[in-house]
Each structure stands twice: as structure tokens, then as C-alpha cells.
Amino acid sequence: MTGAGLVRVGGVGLTIDGRCLANGRRAAWALKEERNVDSLHTGTGRRAKLESAAKLVSDAIKAKRQEQEETVEKNRALIDRELKRLAKARGGQLSPEAVVEAAAAKDHPLHRFFEWRNADAAALWRLDQARRMIMSAKFVVEVIEDRARPPSVRSGSVRTWIPEGRRTRVFRERAAVLSEDDQRAAWIDERITALRAWANSVIDVKELKTVRLGVEALLDEYEG
């Protein structure tokens, strides 16, 4: 095996055999070029090899992605089990301090999910503080609700800085992001996902059933 290649697919990093990746990329590129050439000048045997190589890398990426998704699910199950065990040992209560204290033992199942090198952990903590600082900055927006009769003015506090595109750590001023079609669409998709997540998070709260069903109906209508 040669070096491994990292491919971004749907936001997931996939590491596959470097030869497979390189051959597949070359095949995909060559196949694209050959499709622009008259069929009389394209050998069927070479075309078949190119398509086979392109399919090989596609299958490898799909398999690796499935493997990583299965690993994520296993980790979620492990974390859920260990958190329940810790809470049970503490009378049903759970705190971040208790989790860190238990996970400090090198043989604890949760140990590998934490950064234990103090210098690195401190740097990550400062990055998290900076991220929360950015997200805490807000300003007031006033909008005219023209569906009301007579029209009314409503105000709300919104974030000054919002993410630039999907799955990014870079923020830009709200107006700049919302003025660009692709970034605006990405931000709206993220907000729709957040609304779906909220609806799922209260599915067992009967007092919010009417609100949840209303939100879900509006989302279905919007996405329909």
C-alpha cells in the first residue's frame, strides 16, 4: 500500500488506499476526457478499464464512509452507556466535572475522547472561548410584519457573526453572508436542520406537542 489519501465526502473525511485513490482519480479524469472524443477514436477496452477503475474508487469511498458511520454509532452507544453508568453511581446526577474525573483513568472507556495533554487542551479551550465570544455578539433587527393588519414592527436580537458556508469554523458578518446566494442557502439549510433537531429533542414533551407539530408541518411545507 502506498500513502493514504484523505477525501472529503459530504463533510466526512475518508482515508483510503492511496493507489486506489490515485488510480481512480486518473481514471475519472481520463474517462471525462474520452467522453469528449468521438467514439470512433475511443477503444472499448480502454473505456472499460477506465470505468472499472472509476467504480473502484467510488466503491472504496462508499465502503470507508459506511465504516466511519458505523464507528460513530458505536462511539455514541459507548458514550451513552458510560454516562448512564456514571449517573447511576451518583444518584442519577451527572456533571462535566464527574465525567472528566472518571475519564482521567487511562483504562476508562471515555479516556480516549478527551485531550489530556495540558498544552493542547488549553489551546482548544481558548479556541472554544473565542468561538463562544464570536457567537455571543448580537444586534437588534426590526422588521415590518406586513401580513398583520395594520402592519406591525417586530424586533429581535440576532447574531452579528454567522458561519461562512457549511461545516466551517470561519465566521463573517451576517449581512455579508446573507448577501451571497450560495452562503445564504447554506446558512438557511443549517437553520432548517437546527429546527428539525429541536422538534426531535422535544418529541416526548406533551406540553410542546402542538408547537412541535406546527413547526414540523411548516418545515415539510417549506421543503416540499
What does this structure look like?
By secondary structure, the chain is an alpha+beta fold. Among the domains are: 87 residues; 63 residues, no CATH class. Helix content is 58%, strand content 15%. It contains seven helices and six strands; from the N terminus they run E-E-H-H-H-H-E-E-E-E-H-H-H. Strands 1-2 form a two-stranded antiparallel ribbon. Strands 3-4 form a two-stranded antiparallel sheet. It has a two-stranded antiparallel sheet with strand order 5-6. A hairpin with a 7-residue loop joins strand 5 and strand 6. Helix 1 packs across helix 2 and helix 6 runs antiparallel to helix 7. The longest helix has 46 residues. The radius of gyration is 25 Å and the shape is extended. The two termini are 46 Å apart. The N terminus is likely disordered.
What is the number of beta strands? 6
Average pLDDT across residues? 80
Radius of gyration based on Cα positions: 25 Å
N-end to C-end Cα span: 46 Å
Enumerate the spans where pLDDT stays under 50 for 5 or more consecutive residues.
1-21
Major pleated sheet: 2 strands, antiparallel
Tell me the overall shape: extended
Instruction: Please state the structural category.
Output: alpha+beta
Order of strands, main sheet, comes to: 1-2
Order of helices and strands: EEHHHHEEEEHHH
Strand content is: 15-25%
Helicity, as a percent range = 55-70%
Query: Helix segment count?
Result: 7
Please write out the topology.
Blueprint lengths: L3 E6 L2 E6 H17 L9 H46 L6 H8 L14 H19 L1 E8 L6 E8 L1 E3 L7 E3 H5 L2 H21 L7 H15 L1
Antiparallel strand pairs: 1-2, 3-4, 5-6
Helix pairs in contact: 1-2, 6-7
